[in-house]
Amino acid sequence: MVKVLFVCLGNICRSPLAEAIFSHKVGDAAHISVDSCGTSDFHTGEQPDPRTIETANFYNIPISHRARQLMPQDLRKFDYVIAMDRQNAANVTKMAKDNKVDPEKIYFMRNFDEQQDDINVPDPYFGGMEGFHQVYEILDRSCDKLLKHIIQKESEK
Ligand code: 4NP
Fold this sequence. Notes:
Structural class: alpha/beta
Bound molecules: 4-nitrophenyl phosphate
Order of helices and strands: EHEHHEHEH
Largest sheet: 4 strands, parallel
Strand content: 5-15%
Number of helices: 5
Mean pLDDT: 97
Shape: globular
């Protein structure tokens, strides 16, 4: 089983959308499991932001998640920990170091974006719907490449 974890700040906008898009692309490949979480506890227990749900619905992507905060055991359990921006990556990397977890499993989402013009997936929380559609486009492209990367890596094992 390959375990993939998407991480943002609140776990109500970017990472649950990434989880939904990636799960949709993975489809029935039962050997890949997908989850998401936030580095903060700001929205623990909440459903994705209504604008995240509206965006997923617009692109016919099923979405179902409850926000939760990243814990050290996540870093031991998951094989790919995918951070949405520099701030999340710094927080995840610090937790990994503090818990003696190999930081090599931490990636930037946009390292898989073929149209990368910035390393960050922009935080859409304080903006309008346009920002959510922009985030969708970034995540859709990045998830394609991430899935190819994982399948390639697995085939080399
Ligand atoms: P996310 O977006 O990290 O993509 O889930 C945010 C959600 C909530 C907040 C910031 C970003 N907040 O400040 O509450």
